[in-house]
Specification:
The protein contains 8 helices and 10 strands. By secondary structure, it is of the alpha+beta class. The strands form 4 sheets. A 4-stranded antiparallel sheet has the order 6-9-8-7. The protein has a two-stranded antiparallel ribbon with strand order 1-2.
């Protein structure tokens, strides 16, 4: 005759205890999986918010948030949502996106630092597109135009000096051809002559020395731009974790079936 206590046979109670141990063994993995899943949902929510709040965000910007998933090693359940640091000629997204997260004044861009180094861009001023500046699909100065300006004013450093154009090349550009109007750039560092500080393009109309010239604003020099706080990063993280973690925890493991004794008795 088998002994019973509290309505559970000894056999079923042993099975339940085994199931309970198995559950507690799997619980850290389940919790870590839920944390990782929540982190990916946070990243997706951030990207969706950037699409809504930013004007024509570039793929480079939208690709900035990424997830460093946790492993649960040492039973520490964590995952990180970070901003990607990328090298190259562009400004790291971590640097310029933090202005959108925290608000405040933006950092200098690489081409601005190059122009400032050679004295074209005055200290304390920053470069923004002028009315006639060629823009890319996202409303920024086109990369080709930036290279052209840096080359024209010989702003490339020692490593890229070959990209700087010569005086002879400038003269040819200003002279133009039978099919192409003459063009030259000049800098206004302070208000004067009725022109705003910046880089202006002078284009020849008519040909020869008697041809007239028109001027167009290409890059304007302005005081340091300040940004409003556009990306509520921390609030988005809090909201997604609050709304999704418990659901994710339930989704990655069927707790009820794990704890149910095979004999069907309730603990």
């Amino acid at each position: 005759m088998s002994k019973k206590r509290a309505g559970i046979s000894w056999t079923n109670r042993n099975e339940y205890q085994e199931a309970l141990r198995a559950y507690w063994t799997s619980l850290p993995n389940q919790a870590q999986s839920a944390v990782n899943l929540t982190a990916y949902q946070v990243r997706d929510a951030l990207v969706a918010e950037m699409r809504t709040r930013f004007e024509r965000p570039t793929p480079y910007t939208l690709n900035a948030p990424y997830v460093r998933a946790g492993t649960g090693k040492g039973r520490v359940m964590k995952a990180s949502v970070l901003m990607r640091e990328q090298g190259g000629k562009r400004v790291n997204p971590e640097k310029y996106l933090m202005t959108q997260v925290e608000g405040g004044r933006r950092r200098g861009k690489r081409f601005e630092m190059a122009l400032r180094r050679i004295g074209v861009l005055p200290e304390g001023l920053y470069a923004v597109p002028g009315e006639r500046a060629p823009l890319d699909a996202y409303g920024n100065l086109s990369p080709g135009f930036i290279v052209q300006i840096l080359s024209y004013f010989r702003a490339f450093g020692e490593a890229g000096y070959r990209a700087n154009i010569t005086d002879k090349k400038k003269q040819k550009m200003a002279a133009g051809t039978k099919k192409k109007r003459g063009v030259k750039y000049f800098v206004i560092r302070r208000r004067g002559r009725g022109l705003h500080p910046g880089i202006w393009r002078s284009t020849q109309f008519g040909f020869g020395e008697r041809g007239s010239w028109s001027v167009e604003p290409m890059i304007m020099f302005v005081k340091r731009p300040a940004y409003q706080r556009l990306l509520p990063w921390h609030e988005i993280v809090d909201r997604v974790v609050r709304d999704r973690y418990d659901l994710n925890f339930s989704a990655v493991g069927d707790v009820g079936s794990t704890l149910s004794p095979r004999g069907g008795a309730k603990p």
